[in-house]
């Protein structure tokens, strides 16, 4: 259980528009038990940085260009993150493959969201790949981060139906709306001490081992998951 006075400090890493960051900001404003201490991007043109500035959240840029390798970049990124003393690190569209040493430093306190029902469709272009595979369901997954790309222990998933006539764009939009529900939900659980990664490498929610991810579907309202 996180041991802190007041809201849990969170650092959010982004590379793009930051819509999941905005969902976290909105949750914070609704009274979630976490505080976004900083937003860090590897791209200076990431719109998520502007989202942070609009809400008086420190916005930092650490470009990966000019670094000779991932290890040296991740070492500086770790130093920058740790300057904010976060209890949780959130990957919200951070388009970097992280080194094992970096991941190990934040073991059990770093979450990622991926736009598929993992373990299906790891990597990129998930929506088109789901359509090409003829899937009847698609969705998003929140997981603890490990050195295996999109392969960490699953916390929660949201499912949406694949509809006749769906394109990658229409499917992505419905999935994204559910990402904005389940990601703040998982961060809320973690900040309350309800969610933790056990020594056995399996997530526990309210002391119960999550043998499979906590599942919601498209019928769930935005106000329901935090109960």
Automatic annotation (TrEMBL):
Indicate the segments forming the Formyl transferase N-terminal domain, all copies.
Answer: 10-186
Please name one Pfam family that this protein belongs to: Formyl_trans_N
One GO biological-process annotation of the entry reads: 'de novo' IMP biosynthetic process
Annotated N(1)-(5-phospho-beta-D-ribosyl)glycinamide binding lies at: 18-20
Q: In which pathway does it act?
A: Purine metabolism; IMP biosynthesis via de novo pathway; N(2)-formyl-N(1)-(5-phospho-D-ribosyl)glycinamide from N(1)-(5-phospho-D-ribosyl)glycinamide (10-formyl THF route): step 1/1
Q: Which reaction does it catalyse?
A: N(1)-(5-phospho-beta-D-ribosyl)glycinamide + (6R)-10-formyltetrahydrofolate = N(2)-formyl-N(1)-(5-phospho-beta-D-ribosyl)glycinamide + (6S)-5,6,7,8-tetrahydrofolate + H(+)
- This protein's source sits in the domain of life called Bacteria
Q: Which protein is depicted?
A: Phosphoribosylglycinamide formyltransferase
Q: Which organism encodes this protein?
A: Thiorhodococcus drewsii AZ1
């Amino acid at each position: 259980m996180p041991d802190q006075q007041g809201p849990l400090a969170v650092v959010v890493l982004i590379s793009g528009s930051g819509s999941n960051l905005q969902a976290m900001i909105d949750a914070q404003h609704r009274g979630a038990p976490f505080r976004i201490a900083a937003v860090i991007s590897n791209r200076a043109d990431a719109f998520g940085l502007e989202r942070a500035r609009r809400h008086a959240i420190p916005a930092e840029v650490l470009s990966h260009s000019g670094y000779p390798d991932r290890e040296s970049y991740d070492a500086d990124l770790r130093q920058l993150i740790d300057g904010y003393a976060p209890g949780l690190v959130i990957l919200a569209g951070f388009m970097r493959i992280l080194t094992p040493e970096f991941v190990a430093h934040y073991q059990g306190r770093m979450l990622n969201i991926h736009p598929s029902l993992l373990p299906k469709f790891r990597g990129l272009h998930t929506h088109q790949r789901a359509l090409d595979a003829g899937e009847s369901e698609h969705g998003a997954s929140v997981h603890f981060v490990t050195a295996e790309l999109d392969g960490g222990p699953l916390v929660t998933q949201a499912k949406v139906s694949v509809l006749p006539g769906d394109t990658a764009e229409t499917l992505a939009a419905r999935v994204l709306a559910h990402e904005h529900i389940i990601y703040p939900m998982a961060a809320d659980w973690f900040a309350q001490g309800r969610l933790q990664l056990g020594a056995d490498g399996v997530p526990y929610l309210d002391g119960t081992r999550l043998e499979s991810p906590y599942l919601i579907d498209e019928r769930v309202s935005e106000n329901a998951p935090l109960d």
